């Protein structure tokens, strides 16, 4: 009796394996790029067309910002922020896409992923090309410049 049961289980196991092998492979939807899906442990907070996800890490904040193609700070954000230039320091990592930063003294800096980014406060910025720019940033809210040792504004030594 016990032996029969054992055999039966073995057979059913084999059958299960066989059916798994012969089951038609379902065509899965392509897995979305992790750079673009919702960030675990972060809070979504959009700013205009910019998709922001923000989380805490120690005393810092970690942010993923997705800037859409065609984005330009002076066109899309300036009317909302009401300052002439973006006064944030941006420190982090450009994971995707390309950006051009323009300072009021005429300096321009282009970043293309993958690239480390350190942008001084007081700039305009635009997305280059047809792909969204994905920027992973670290900040300390009001104390970002001091804590990260960034200049208060763009200057030349
Ligand atoms: Zn300059």
UniProtKB/TrEMBL annotation:
Residues 11-33 are annotated as: Disordered. Residues 17-29 have a biased composition (Basic residues). This is Cupin domain-containing protein. It comes from Anaeromyxobacter oryzae.
């Amino acid at each position: 009796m016990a032996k029969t049961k054992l055999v039966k289980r073995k057979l059913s196991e084999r059958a299960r394996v066989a059916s798994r092998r012969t089951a038609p492979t379902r065509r899965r939807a392509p897995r979305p790029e992790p750079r673009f899906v919702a960030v675990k442990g972060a809070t979504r907070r959009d700013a205009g067309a910019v998709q922001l996800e923000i989380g805490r890490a120690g005393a810092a904040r970690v942010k993923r910002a997705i800037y859409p193609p065609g984005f330009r700070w002076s066109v899309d954000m300036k009317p909302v922020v009401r300052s002439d230039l973006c006064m944030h320091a941006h420190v982090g990592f450009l994971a995707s896409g390309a950006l051009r930063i323009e300072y009021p003294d005429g300096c321009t800096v282009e970043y293309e992923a993958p690239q480390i980014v350190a942008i001084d406060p007081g700039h305009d910025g635009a997305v280059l090309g047809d792909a969204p720019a994905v920027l992973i940033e670290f900040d300390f809210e009001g104390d970002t410049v001091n804590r990260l040792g960034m200049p208060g504004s763009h200057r030349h030594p």
